[in-house]
Design brief:
Largest sheet: 8 strands, antiparallel
Distance between the termini: 45 Å
Shape: flat
Structural class: mainly beta
Strand content: over 45%
Radius of gyration: 24 Å
Number of helices: 0
CATH topology of the largest domain: Immunoglobulin-like
CATH class of the largest domain: Mainly Beta
Oligomer: single chain
Length: 342
Amino acid sequence: MLRSAFCVSSILFSSIALANGYVTPNPTHDYSISLDKADIQNKPGFITNPFTWNLGGQYSGIVTCPDKSIPASPVFYKSTMSDGLTQLGDGFVMLNDFLDMKVEIWIAGNKKKYVVAPFPNESNEYPNYRCNKGGETRISNFESGSRGRVTFRVRKKIINGVQISDRKVVEMFGRLGSTTNDFNGLPMSRITITSAILYVPEKCVINGGQTIEVEFGDLPGTGLDGNNHEKTLPLTFRCEGGAFEGDALKVNLAVSGRPASFNSDYLRTTKDGYQGGQVINDLGIKFKQLDGSQLQINKFYPVSMQGNIGDWGFIAAPVSPAGADVPAGDFYATATIVAEFQ
């Protein structure tokens, strides 16, 4: 038997063969950065001042040379953007519907320079590392990646600001000996934005700012087709500040959250709490509009308003793939109501 917890506005739903010169991390060094809270101009095209981080510290890795010796080489670095972020030019990638992002990574050694990620093959210009054939070299003073800058660009007008949390943005790989296409598959370092909050004057308050919790109760492990065990959630909202102090604006709302693995229209569930990472692969939350029509997560829908006050709502129900038998236990899901205006 399944048990659930569900909550809204925030919505909370209760051995490797290594090529020559590879740097193998010991282990991957994770840099977790927390950016400052800041006010930004709520104008498409506005670019923030860079947010900087300098975490200091060094980390180690082992260079292996099974095929040949490498004399007097700098370290070459490659970086990739995480999560398949779309490149837009000018160093920016699309972070979400509202923001673009540019990440610059500090390359140490003699280079001592910020380089825009992603990059394919950047030397630290310090040719003082060696590796003998058949042996390995331990380097204990890597520091590239410990410093950097993040710049944001507004894509379209924002309501309630933007909060970024636990977002992996860059992975960096290294080796000795110059190359353009041959790096280890194990990242030396990984950079994650643990928190960043960008404030704007416009805001919409949903249900008086109260978290909306939904309890589905005891559920069977089979037959969850998204039409049974439905819960109806009416919502009210009020918008104010900034552009809302002038003429009435058109507002669209969306249910924002991580999609289920079996259908991106549904919200994923976890078994280890609202912020948990143990995903239940065969269980999601399906949404409908109050008239019974489809409501996809992460898609905006127009809402009715009188002045800057309006009503919305949706229907939520557990759903699993046809024929699936979901193991017994508690499940949770979380989402957020987000708004955009025109």
